């Protein structure tokens, strides 16, 4: 007796297809299959490459640009911080009356 596909299973399969999971997994597995030298740990390969499947080069470029911008901002703020500390040091070393003692 042949039984048709389980409705819950079929619904879950459609859900995975609609969410892009099937395509992503297929893409990663094809990439693994096409590797000249198979990695020692196939599961680790899949984990590493699964996260990269949905990321476009445009996303990567935007993230790289953000890193560059943040590093520049950090350097600028560090310089500004150094200048302000030097000014503060000068003001703290000046007597409160602002003049010379007689």
From TrEMBL:
Residues 53-94 form a coiled coil. The keyword Repeat does not apply. One of its GO terms (molecular function) is transcription coactivator activity. It comes from the Eukaryota. Its main location: nucleus. Keywords: Coiled coil, Nucleus. InterPro entries: AMY1. CDD domains: ZIP_MycBP-like (cd21937). It is found in: Nucleus. The keyword Nucleus applies. GO terms for cellular component: nucleus. Belongs to the AMY1 family. This is MYC binding protein. The lineage of its organism: Eukaryota, Metazoa, Chordata, Craniata, Vertebrata. The gene is SELENOS.
């Amino acid at each position: 007796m042949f039984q048709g596909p389980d409705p819950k299973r079929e619904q879950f399969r459609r859900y995975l297809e609609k969410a892009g999971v099937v395509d992503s997994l297929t893409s990663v597995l094809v990439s693994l299959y096409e590797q000249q030298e198979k990695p020692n740990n196939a599961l680790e390969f899949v984990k590493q490459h699964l996260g990269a499947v949905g990321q476009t080069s445009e996303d990567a470029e935007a993230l790289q640009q953000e890193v560059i911008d943040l590093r520049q901002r950090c350097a600028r703020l560090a310089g500004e911080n150094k200048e302000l500390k030097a000014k503060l040091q000068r003001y703290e070393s000046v007597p409160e009356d602002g003049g010379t003692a007689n």
